[in-house]
Amino acid sequence: MLKKLTSTSAVAALSLSVLAAGVQAGETVDAVMEQGYVQCGVSTGLAGFSNATGGDWAGIDVDVCRAVAAAMFGDSEAVRYTGLTANQRFTALQSGEVDVLSRNTTWTLTRDTSLGLNFAGVTYYDGQGFMVRKDLGVTSATQLDGAAVCVEPGTTTELNLADYFRAQGMDFEPVVIENTSEVTAAFFAGRCDVYTTDASGLASARNVSAENPSDYVILPEIISKEPLGPAVRHGDDEWLDIVRWSLTALIEAEEFGITSENVDEMRDNSSNPGIQRLLGVTPGLGEALGLDEDWAYNIISQVGNYGEIYQTNVTDLLGLERGLNALWTDGGLMYANPVR
Ligand SMILES: N[C@@H](CCC(=O)N[C@@H](CS)C(=O)NCC(=O)O)C(=O)O
């Protein structure tokens, strides 16, 4: 369980709230603790990332919320989910309808500033691509001049699409549709020639939603950088810290080779000081976060490490290899800042 703020940190929180003009530090942490669960904003349904089948949400973004709940409450099931379209997601976070937005959301400057968000890290390094029906005979995005393109509003996708076609001196006809199931249905029904979104979303549409995946090809061009990660509102640094370090613990666990299977054995027997700190054998990190010392142990034992989560949700389901999302030690970009 989350510990009460010590009197020293309560004083620090108070002075921060004075400095931060009306924003009380710790407000979200207190509210989440009080309500007893994390209200997590996810997509309306995107296999591999956040998808509800039979009422159970699953996906890499869902697992980030489960990790936060495990860290705070020792219970990865202490989460409630709100399905949000791209257009709805930022208002839902700003208004307090959700505590954290973990929904294949790209970290950009204007979202970080004008929209008043803080990104806690990156769960998935992605990039935007294009998918077409194979029988069109198109092999490169540079052949798409004049195409009708299905796209979701309120996304970086929409903006990159316009940039890319302008830069190539090509025209396109946007077919703008609000949620994934409808936009993919429109594409599969032939209402547009091209579907564009993050490459992971294309793989999800083709591998999971298409009747016959081999009827479709994903073109080789990746036209943008889409670092996807969980975001919180400006104004509560303690909450940001909990989300950030919960995500970091998933990656750090993989770096150390700690899995949901061996975490007990590691906690009982490892003499590695880093592992002992992460798993709370050597106390201190839990207290620093205002959590129990077994915060990371609970994450790993209940949710797994980053590699386990990726394998189940992305490799097994969508057929995507680790690529940029491999650990830095394997040539990827996944790198845990020091948990100490
Ligand atoms: N990463 C991009 C795109 C995110 C996005 O919303 N993509 C669509 C297409 S894959 C989606 O997730 N839709 C889910 C939904 O409508 O619930 C962004 O942050 O703007």
Short note summarizing the structure:
The protein has about 350 residues and is of the alpha/beta class. About 40% of the residues lie in helices and about 15% in strands.
Question: What attributes characterize this protein structure?
Answer:
340 residues; alpha/beta; D-Maltodextrin-Binding Protein, domain 2; 5-stranded mixed β-sheet; 3-stranded parallel β-sheet; 14 helices; 14 strands; disordered N terminus; binds glutathione
Your description of this structure?
The protein has 340 residues and is of the alpha/beta class. The chain has two domains: 7-125 and 228-330, D-Maltodextrin-Binding Protein, domain 2 (3-Layer(aba) Sandwich), CATH 3.40.190.10; 128-224, D-Maltodextrin-Binding Protein, domain 2 (3-Layer(aba) Sandwich). The chain contains 14 helices and 14 strands. It has a five-stranded mixed β-sheet with strand order 10-9-11-8-12, sandwiched between helices. It is globular, with a radius of gyration of 21 Å. Residues 43-46, 85-86, 104-106, 152, 155-157, 179-180, 197-198, 201, 226, 228 line the site of glutathione (GSH).
